[in-house]
Target: Vitamin K-dependent gamma-carboxylase
Amino acid sequence: MEAGDATAGAFVRRDGDDQTAKDQHKAPKREQTPTRSKMEQIFGFKKEDLTSWHSFVSLLNRPTDPASLGIFRCLFGLLMVIDITQERGLSNLDYKYLDGAPVCRFPLFNFLQPLPLDWMYLVYVVMFLGASGIMLGCFYRLSCLMFLSTYWYIFFLDKTTWNNHSYLYGLIGFQLTLMDGNRYWSIDGLRRPSIRNAHVPLWNYTLLRAQIFIVYFIAGVKKLDADWVEGYSMSYLAHHWLFDPFKLILPVELVSLLVVHGGGLILDLTAGYLLFFDVTRPYAFFFVSYFHCMNSQLFSIGMFPYTMLATSPLFCYPDWPRNFFAHFPSFLRAVLPLTSPGSQPSPSCVYEEIQGSGTQQRQTPAAAKSSKLRLKHKLGAIFTVLYLMEQFFMPYSHFITQGYNNWTNGLYGYSWDMMVHSRSHQHVKITYKDRKTGETGYLNPGVFTQSRRWKDHGDMLKQYATCLHQYLPRYNISDPEIYFDIWVSINERFQQRIFDPRVDIVRAEWSPFKPNKWLMPLLVDLSPWRTKFQEIEGSLDNQTEIVFIADFPGLHLENFVSEDLGNTSIQVLQGQVNVEIVEEKKNYTLQPGEQIKVPAGAYHKVYTVSEDPSCYMYVYVNTTEAALQKNFTKLYEIQERVRNGTETEPLPPELQPLMAADDDEGSEVNATDPIVRLFLKRQRRMKEVKKRREAGVLERLQRFAVKKYYTIRRGILMTAIAMRNLAVGLPPLEQLTREVAYANMKEPQAEASQDERLKDEVGHAEL
Model:
């Protein structure tokens, strides 16, 4: 059996049979449906349902209770309404699109450009109304089209925001457009009694269930990657407080390997299967709910965990809402979904004629008109099969879109390889060269753009270079060449170049259907070094830090060591390098095991002169921060002695604020010594963090609600201003300024703490 057919069969249940049994519960016992076979009890269909095209189409169009689909439609619409103001960016639309400013953008197709800002607000209004219509089941088809068209336009407009769950929202919106999602608990049902509580074809459930199965299962298959299995992809997650209960019985290394990576792999591979079967579904609900609740705290992924939670009931029997809402008080029944059993027939479904004898013979309901297959029934079955085949194929279609394969599986947004790759960037340099004057200079990484994802994707790098080529002539840089030197570590490997720094990206060839010629290969042969990294890092003290570098033969790294890093050395692990101290004009050749100290506050170059890639490491101590921490320790000891009454000598004037720190929270403002002022700032910040962590449930909910209120408030007010501008034109500048300032108003606590937020005055300088 083909994969698409198998999936279509596996995700049909005995929903229609269950409903038929309920409708016939008063029938004589001899007329009841015969006992089902074992296969039918487990999978919900018989082997005969797959033996011919006619029976297969009839199966997919079997009448099914619309209740579960209606509840999911409502929940999905609600979540999208919330998502539009947050992850889609309605609340910060003016910052996102910067109307009229020179901004480099990254659309899927270069001809796609954002509309003027006020019109973009209108696009979001249309999307918001569409999502609201889906939630309410009001003018359902039109609402789906409004949401779908605007959503995919915004999705294609900016590749820097692409992710798997945003892609999933678009897919579900597309599926709902073709389904009968407004047959239950909808305004359309109130307006049109003929569709109220009417059956829906089984393929509506089959499609959604199979889509969620694909999300889980393909994500699990992608996690069979060696980096995930060995625990390198998301090792940092084990340090999160959510995993503290596991750390009571396991060391953090095993928590990372067994819980984060092992648990994530097993859950993704099995969740779809466990949700499908009656026996395992309760256990699946528990683990899946726990998993998504954790994800909502671990990652900033908007409504995705809640959307996945909303999809879980789709695997239950479709009449579960009737049973659930039947337990509510009777005075609420007017606003709650229908709880009465049975649904009216629908021409969208195929009904079986029940044969009997004499007056006991039963016919297909008249409203269904006939049990014959129509074109719409066949098209529904064909669409289901083709769609599922396409969804199984897309995550493995990267042999087609080869230009997007930049150390990942192509276009990340539809691959379901969620969290399989983690990256860290150590060094990013953009060099321009004026082709007319020969002048060479450097650009601030990220100039003319608000995103940082261009550093990892060749297609975005090409778009960025082309954009820079267009804007730099405004600054007397004629016909510039653009070169990128970007160092990336993927899944805790060596920091290495991802793109060839010798290639002018403006004139470099790039095609979505050809391999990227200026993409440097990932040095997978050096992956075993990661186990040695842990040994080396474990042998260092807390103040010493380390960066592991790998480079290709014939290339060199030009680096500047900050003055804060007063004790920096280079040690070779593999290959041969030549270190040039630029100011001293001296060169030193290093073999494996040899090291050299490089001066702080100066440039140096590291050339790879061996035939194979070289590996070396920077070992450094932030001497400024180490001295600061030493001073902090002394100040803390003095403060403790003052509190305990064991300090016998009077404090000098510059240390007097330490005595008043507990009584006067603003005492650090009067501190004359910068070290004392910074110490008190950090102490106050630590108290705030501790207070927030120890806050009760009600306080956390209040803080969450207030934050969301001001976020949504700004989106609504800015949208109202934009709609007014489109309707009657722009007001005077002074009025517009006042209106925007009013929309930008934040909660008083946020305004009070904004200036008091601790800044990292002494951070780690980039090597």
Q: What stands out?
A: The radius of gyration is 32 Å. The longest helix spans residues 697-728. Residues 1-14, 16-32, 355-370, 750-767 have pLDDT under 50 and may be disordered.
